[in-house]
């Protein structure tokens, strides 16, 4: 029998390059929320893919940005941790990109001793000529990296990349139970799905000023009952989230309930409330409370 392989495969890149789409394609489940807005991913989320003789622990991290406030500092700490425990690093870029928003991260990639796969995403939007020039550019930037073109959205070349990662994994016993899909608790995914709907339904600063806290998650055989609080930073934001006669909040609740029922494969009853938590994004104690270090 072949030896068992296991390892951490960490995905980094700028915002909106398709990291979450790729991880969900690898895992076969929607673990990372996906929207067209930057900074959708705030935490480091693990997705675990198990086979008879392997365990691939995929890690989706926030997009690399230059932090403007304490929450974003914490988000970048999740990216730094991805360098520390990776057995394989996936650096994801899209056609036309010229580097990371933080030069220090690019330098760490250039000096990396572990295998680096540069994944050139969204090739379905480029001509063959553009693709070839991009491959040449990245070969010069990261001469040690393997370059793999793909389209995460259409899943073009996803399976061959998955197989290549498997080849690179070290021989090791599984780190997690073989039936485990992620390291996050159920309430985390409730919070993320609600936040995804807020990102989709509100504009400007509102989605970035919001954090979700699920206060109640009660599951029986027939139904899951959820009570969640949407935290905002100012009273004016509370009014916008609720909307005229509560219609905006109701729309978020309906959309979240539909996705939660798909995620848990069970009927869901959800209640949403809105509270003001002033300047939580710059408050170290509040950030720890919401899982940011």
In short:
By secondary structure, this protein is α/β, with parallel strands linked by helices. It is 36% helix and 24% strand. The strands form two sheets. A six-stranded mixed sheet has the order 2-3-1-4-5-6, with helices on both faces. Strands 7-8-9 form a three-stranded mixed sheet.
Distance between the termini: 42 Å
Task: Please state roughly what percent of the residues sit in beta strands, choosing from under 5%, 5-15%, 15-25%, 25-35%, 35-45% or over 45%.
Answer: 15-25%
Q: Tell me roughly what share of residues is in helical segments.
A: 25-40%
The first-level CATH class name of the largest domain = Alpha Beta
What CATH architecture of the largest domain would you give? 3-Layer(aba) Sandwich
CATH superfamily of the largest domain: P-loop containing nucleotide triphosphate hydrolases
Order of helices and strands: EHEEHEHEHEHHEEHHEH
Rg over CA atoms: 20 Å
User: What structural class should be given to the helix and strand makeup?
Assistant: alpha/beta
Q: Calculate the mean pLDDT score and round it.
A: 83
The total of helices stands at 9
- CATH-assigned fold name of the largest domain: Rossmann fold
């Amino acid at each position: 029998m072949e030896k068992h392989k296991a390892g951490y495969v960490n995905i980094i890149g700028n915002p909106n390059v398709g990291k979450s789409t790729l991880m969900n394609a690898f895992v076969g489940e929607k673990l990372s929320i996906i929207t067209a807005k930057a900074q959708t991913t705030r935490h480091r989320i693990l997705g675990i893919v198990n086979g008879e003789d392997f365990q691939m622990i995929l890690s989706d991290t926030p997009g690399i940005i230059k932090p403007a406030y304490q929450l974003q500092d914490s988000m970048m700490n999740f990216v730094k941790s991805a360098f520390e425990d990776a057995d394989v690093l996936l650096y994801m870029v899209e056609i036309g990109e010229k580097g990371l928003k933080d030069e220090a991260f690019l330098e760490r990639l250039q000096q990396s001793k572990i295998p680096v796969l540069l994944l050139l995403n969204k090739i379905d939007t480029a001509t063959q000529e553009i693709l070839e020039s991009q491959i040449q550019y990245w070969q010069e930037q990261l001469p040690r990296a393997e370059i793999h073109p793909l389209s995460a959205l259409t899943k073009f070349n996803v399976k061959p990349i998955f197989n290549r990662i498997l080849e690179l994994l070290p021989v090791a016993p599984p780190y997690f139970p073989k039936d485990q899909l992620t390291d996050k608790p159920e309430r985390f995914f409730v919070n993320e799905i609600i936040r995804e709907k807020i990102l989709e339904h509100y504009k400007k600063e509102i989605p970035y000023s919001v954090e979700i806290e699920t206060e109640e998650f009660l599951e029986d055989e027939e139904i899951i009952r959820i009570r969640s609080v949407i935290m905002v930073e100012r009273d004016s934001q509370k009014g916008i989230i609720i909307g005229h006669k509560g219609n905006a909040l109701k729309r978020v609740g309906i959309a979240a309930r539909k996705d939660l029922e798909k995620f848990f494969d069970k009927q869901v009853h959800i209640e949403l409330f809105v509270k003001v938590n002033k300047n939580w994004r710059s408050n170290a104690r509040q950030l720890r409370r919401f899982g940011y270090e």
